[in-house]
Amino acid sequence: MATASETTLVTTRNESGTKWWTRFLDPSEGTLAALLLLPTALLLTLIIVYPVCRLIWTSFQNLSLTSGLPASFAGLENYSLMLDDPVFWETTWNTVLITLITVPGALLVGLALALMANLPFNVKWPVRLSLLIPWALPLSFAGLIFAWFFHSEYGVVNDVLRRIGFEGVIWFNSANWAFAAICLTIIWKTSSFMALIILAGLQTIPRSLYEAADVDGAGRLRQFFEITLPLLKPAIVVALIFRTITALQTFDIPFTMTRGGPGTSTATLAMYIHQNTVDFLDLGYGSALAVVMFVLSMGVTAVYLRMIRARG
């Protein structure tokens, strides 16, 4: 015969089991959100957190596949070598310079293209399709196309210069001209991406604001600076975040156009990482370089996010 205390214990266990099962079948909003986010969190941990942690760990090791020696802990040796490496500083400066030139350039061109695509055309799809074409082209393909455009003998650019009375330029024999050609190519390739994001922002601006401004006698220029530009700031910041991060990781276009030449005058940090890891098989030093690029990208993202939070 069960005592009253034993009966109470069994009842309590049954009730707790029933509550757990009921909570699982009919979860609260917080529990449901956690369950839905769990697969995404696991996937992000697998494809982002683990590789980043592995990269940081490898950067503290002497790991060269050509030495025939096993990996050994090196501490900060790879980072100290980096400080004395002139190629690292040159490629980092080239990367920063490409970012400072192409990001504002792509923003200005993209803004102009977005405003043009937002005009009340009778048929809008050809204009918007023209924005998609440069963005859809592979980066290496765009680099090869513009390498032909800027070819010193049979390139389109030099042909146009000669037809209007100027001498042709040997673009890829000069560090400055080669760098300019790369920057122009990157601006052409990435401005369409900026235009698509800004165009999406333009679509959210109510038409009634412009109608009220017309009633008040505001001209087009004043409407742009007092209505369009302020309301486009969130879209512009989003476009700048994505474009700046990809600019810091620039690889394909300089690689296909100049291979970093003349010398290393147009090489980027991503190209130097590729050279150390793929060509030289020095995974320790290449990982240290990649950590620097990762820190730069995260730093830029943090600055932009702080700007968004401050305006919000």
TrEMBL record:
Belongs to the binding-protein-dependent transport system permease family. It is found in: Cell membrane. SUPFAM superfamilies: MetI-like. Residues 92-304 form the ABC transmembrane type-1 domain. This is Sugar ABC transporter permease. Keywords: Cell membrane, Membrane, Transmembrane, Transmembrane helix, Transport. It holds the Pfam family BPD_transp_1. The chain crosses the membrane at residues 32-53, 96-117, 129-150, 170-188, 231-251, 285-305. It is a multi-pass membrane protein.
